[in-house]
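Researcher: Let's do a round of design. I'm pasting the structure tokens now; please hold your answer until I've finished.
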């Protein structure tokens, strides 16, 4: 099963991407969603409420998919292990 990488700080994204394998899922939450407007590499996910709270949803890159809290829960249920990056 693929790993879910949850990134909650922008500075942690680079380290996460160096470690994440092809097929792993990377989810941006909290202040890491600022990277959704800057990141142009591999596809990532971002949490809608955190994007909305920062006024970023209309400025995210084309390689960013948005998930709500129900989608977040589904990701956790369908991935093993789950790794948090801070």
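Researcher: That's everything. Go ahead.
Model: Designed sequence:
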């Amino acid at each position: 099963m693929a790993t879910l990488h949850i990134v909650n700080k922008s500075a942690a994204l680079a380290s996460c991407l160096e470690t994440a394998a092809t097929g792993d899922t990377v989810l941006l939450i909290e202040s890491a969603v600022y990277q959704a407007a800057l990141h142009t590499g591999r596809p990532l996910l971002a949490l809608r409420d955190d994007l909305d709270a920062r006024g970023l949803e209309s400025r995210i890159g084309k390689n960013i998919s948005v998930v709500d809290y129900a989608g977040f829960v589904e990701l956790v249920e369908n991935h093993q292990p789950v790794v948090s990056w801070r």
